[in-house]
Each structure stands twice: as structure tokens, then as C-alpha cells.
């Protein structure tokens, strides 16, 4: 047995040190450096059945000599999950799913496991097989080839994998696993790094996709070393408010597809329901028109969305005016207020301004600038905007209304959802004709104010 050595790791960022320090020099966090035992020995392969080391011949290939099958993806019955991944799970890929406790990560992956028409091994280190069975009975889909394993030692997991030979492996969660090759507690930086390395090597050598769940810290980052997100192929973020029933699945990293796709689910008693028309949850239903609301046509990946912008403008009673934004960049809102003040002559400097995007989502699309301006002006004038109006344009610092990409797709989506009038930039090149929606092209903020009020 090799000599046992120790090293010091920062539990926040994973940086290794030769001695203990009070403050990590990489992330500047205090009291996060912990001593861990590391084993300097020849590490065995993930395949514990092969005792004799095999000498692998290494060869370099020309790009023209490499061939692959574009259809090598496993498709689930969960269309939202497929779209976020890029039309299915790629063979041999490593997928990391992170999210807050109780948000529904285990429910989502168990639902995916039961919807795949292939042999799936669901490994849980947090729940007993009876608990997983109780959850599986509430879900709609039933996969007879879905097997449950409650184990945390990777060597035992790989033994079961050799016996079962699954097509997909799901790990819940990576923080509960431990390997014999590192003498440290489960969940430490060295254990997470080593167990992920073993799973990655297994996935690449056998072309078996592995989906792992990762815990997150109080700051919202995935717990463990930052290298964990570099090692995997796909990083998914499952987010939402536990006080609401809607959940949003985003791709922060995807080596096999776009990172701008969005999946929306609704948590119900039988599991997560796919929301194929997100506009139904992002636009509130009202009996009468109210001031301070405007509908924006935005895009998330290839999917057009109609979202509701809510604004409240009131006189500041505590001296310093308040500025608050939920789901929208506060700095950008302050910029738009400065444009209204300087270029359009609206005196909003002594007024409180509150902004909210209905549905609990966050939007970074600059195309909702015009809707934000319209909602603020509507609240300031206390004059409601008709419910069948929508907006899609960006606001420049000089007060001009700038064009946005793929405006034709936004127009068609607004027409499909029953809107009668859409406001876009005059500088957009429109290709849609003979539509049932009236397209109004504006170039300045004064034009939009005159058209609405």
C-alpha cells in the first residue's frame, strides 16, 4: 500500500493547498479549507472485473477518418426534457442536474427513467427503494425495465452495472457517492472529483449516458469543485419557487445543443406535467383592464413566449425614490427610466418604480424593452393598455426604438394567441404578409406614447 498523504482543499471552490490557511486565496472565503486524506496509488479502472491491466494502443485519427451516427440519441416521452437537451440524450454523455432542495429533481429524473423505453438503472444514495416505489406509483409512465439500486459505493455500483448492463444510468446524488481509492468522507471535494471521474470514464468507454443530480449551495451554485461542471457534457438547472407549482429547466452548458432552450413544468400530485404552451402561465387572466401591464413577445431558444410585464409607478413618500425589479435586470430598468427622463421628458426621478415579470421567470431578452416602457407609462398615466396589444422592440440610449431578431416569428406567435395589434421597430425587415394581426411600426418613444395614450 502506498504512503498515505494529506492535502488541504477549499470546500467552496475546490482549490488544493499544501498547508492550512484561514482564507482561500482563490475565492476569498474564510474557514472553508479542510484537510482531506488522499491516496497516492495506481488507480484501478471503473471495471473492477478486469484485474490484469491492459495496454491500450494509442492512435491519432484525421478528422476526415472519424465517422459517427447523428441519430445516436435516446428519446424520452418527456418532450420538454428532450428539447432542453437538444432532442434527446446523447450516448456516452454526462448530464448534471442541479437545483434547490425539494424543487423536484428526483421526481423529474424518476419520471424520465420511467418514460424511457430502454433498460434504466436508477441509483439512489438518499432514499430507500420503498420510498422510490411510493413515488413511482404516483407517476403516469411505467417502464418495466427500470431498476432501482440503493448504494453509495462506486465499486458496488459498477458490479451491478456489469450484471445488469443498463442503457442509461441515473445517480441521485453525486454528493452521496464515495470510492475506496480516496480516504475522505462522501461529499468532500476529493470524493466528488474522483467519483465523477470514474463515472465519466465509464460513460465514455461504454457509450452509456449517465445523468447525475448535484446539490447546490446557499449561493445557488452546484456544491463541490467547479471542475465538476467542466467534466460533464451538459449542466441543467432546475429552478422555480416552491410556493408556486411551476418549474423551469434551463441548460447552462450543452456540448450537444443550444443553451437557450427552456422547459416548463407544472408540479402536480401525479408528477411534473409538461407545459407545451408557456404563455398560459405567463399571462394572468383578468376580468377588466388594469393600468401598468403590457405583453411582450420574447424568445427562449427557438420557442416564442408571450410574457406579462407589470409596473407600478407611485409618488415617493420616503424621500429617496425606490427602484425594484423582479425577473428583470435592475440596471437595465434604471437605464430605461433615464431614457424616459432625458429623451422623452417624463419626470420619473421623484417617483417609486416597481417592475415584475409575471410567472416567476427571469428574462434577459432586450426585445421586452418596449413592453417595459409601455407598462411604466401606463402606470404613470393610470391608463390601461388594451389586452390585445403586444410589443417587441429594443430601446436605445438616444430614445430610438431598435429592431430585434426573428421578429416575424414573434408576430406569428402573437397572431396565434389572439392578439390584434403588435408594436415593432420601423427598422425591422418584415417578411410576413396578409396576417390577421395589425403591425404598427414605431421609431421613437414619442410614437409609442401617442399611439397608446
Features:
453 residues; alpha/beta; Rossmann fold; Ribosomal Protein S5, domain 2; nine-stranded mixed β-sheet; seven-stranded mixed β-sheet; 11 helices; 24% helix; 27% strand; globular
Task: Outline the secondary-structure elements.
Layout (H helix, E strand, L loop, with lengths): L3 E7 L5 E2 L15 E7 L33 E2 L4 H7 L3 E2 L3 E6 L5 H11 L4 E5 L4 H10 L7 E5 L3 H11 L3 E5 L16 H18 L3 E5 L12 H5 L2 E6 L6 E9 L7 E7 L2 E4 L4 H4 L10 E8 L2 E13 L7 E4 L3 H13 L8 E7 L11 H13 L7 E4 L1 E2 L5 E2 L4 H10 L4 E5 L12 E5 L2 H8 L1
Parallel strand pairs: 6-10, 6-11, 7-8, 7-9, 9-10, 15-19, 17-18, 19-22, 22-23
Antiparallel strand pairs: 1-2, 1-3, 4-5, 11-12, 12-13, 13-14, 15-16, 16-18, 20-21
- The gyration radius over C-alpha positions equals 26 Å
Give the overall shape, derived from the CA principal axes: globular
Task: Tally the beta strands.
Answer: 23
Helix content: 10-25%
Helix-strand makeup class: alpha/beta
Sheet bearing the most strands, described?
9 strands, mixed
CATH overall fold name of the largest domain: Rossmann fold
What count of structural domains?
A: 3
Amino acid at each position: 500500500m502506498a504512503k498515505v498523504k494529506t492535502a488541504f482543499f477549499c470546500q467552496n471552490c475546490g482549490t488544493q493547498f499544501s498547508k492550512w490557511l484561514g482564507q482561500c486565496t482563490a475565492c476569498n472565503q474564510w474557514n472553508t479549507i479542510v484537510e482531506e486524506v488522499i491516496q497516492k496509488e495506481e488507480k484501478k479502472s471503473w471495471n473492477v472485473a478486469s484485474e490484469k491491466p491492459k495496454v491500450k494502443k494509442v492512435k491519432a485519427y484525421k478528422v476526415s477518418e472519424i465517422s459517427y451516427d447523428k441519430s445516436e440519441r435516446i428519446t424520452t416521452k418527456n418532450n420538454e426534457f428532450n428539447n432542453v437537451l437538444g432532442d434527446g440524450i446523447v450516448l456516452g454523455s454526462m448530464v448534471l442536474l442541479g437545483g434547490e432542495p425539494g424543487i423536484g429533481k428526483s421526481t423529474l429524473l424518476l419520471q424520465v427513467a420511467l418514460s424511457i423505453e430502454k433498460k434504466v438503472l436508477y441509483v439512489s444514495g438518499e432514499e430507500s427503494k420503498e420510498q422510490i416505489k411510493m413515488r413511482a406509483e404516483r407517476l403516469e409512465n411505467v417502464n418495466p425495465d427500470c431498476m432501482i439500486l440503493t448504494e453509495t459505493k462506486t465499486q458496488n455500483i459498477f458490479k451491478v452495472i456489469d450484471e445488469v448492463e443498463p442503457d442509461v444510468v441515473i445517480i441521485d446524488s453525486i454528493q452521496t457517492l464515495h470510492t475506496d481509492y480516496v480516504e475522505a468522507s462522501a461529499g468532500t471535494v476529493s470524493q466528488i472529483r474522483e467519483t465523477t471521474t470514474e463515472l465519466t470514464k465509464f460513460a465514455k468507454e461504454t457509450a452509456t449516458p449517465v445523468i447525475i443530480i448535484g446539490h447546490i449551495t446557499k449561493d445557488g451554485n452546484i456544491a463541490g469543485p467547479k471542475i465538476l461542471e467542466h467534466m460533464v457534457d451538459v449542466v441543467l438547472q432546475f429552478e422555480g419557487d416552491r410556493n408556486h407549482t411551476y418549474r423551469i429547466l434551463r441548460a447552462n452548458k450543452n456540448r450537444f445543443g443550444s443553451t437557450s432552450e427552456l422547459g416548463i413544468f407544472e408540479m402536480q400530485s401525479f408528477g411534473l406535467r409538461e407545459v407545451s404552451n408557456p404563455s398560459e402561465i405567463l399571462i394572468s387572466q383578468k376580468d377588466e383592464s388594469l393600468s401598468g401591464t403590457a405583453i411582450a413577445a420574447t424568445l427562449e431558444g427557438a420557442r416564442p413566449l408571450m410574457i406579462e410585464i407589470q409596473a407600478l409607478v407611485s409618488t415617493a413618500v420616503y424621500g429617496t425614490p425606490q427602484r425594484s425589479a423582479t425577473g428583470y435586470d435592475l440596471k437595465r430598468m434604471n437605464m430605461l427610466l433615464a431614457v424616459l427622463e432625458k429623451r422623452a421628458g417624463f419626470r420619473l426621478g421623484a417617483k417609486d418604480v416597481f417592475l415584475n415579470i409575471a410567472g416567476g421567470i427571469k428574462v434577459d431578452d432586450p426585445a421586452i424593452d418596449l413592453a417595459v416602457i409601455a407598462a411604466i407609462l401606463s402606470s404613470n398615466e393610470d391608463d390601461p393598455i388594451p389586452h390585445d396589444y403586444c410589443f417587441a422592440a429594443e430601446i436605445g440610449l438616444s430614445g430610438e426604438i431598435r429592431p430585434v431578431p426573428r421578429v416575424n416569428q414573434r408576430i406569428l406567435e402573437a397572431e396565434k394567441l389572439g392578439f390584434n395589434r403588435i408594436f415593432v421597430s420601423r427598422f425591422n425587415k418584415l417578411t410576413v404578409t396578409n396576417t390577421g394581426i395589425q403591425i404598427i411600426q414605431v421609431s421613437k418613444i414619442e410614437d409609442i406614447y401617442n399611439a397608446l395614450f
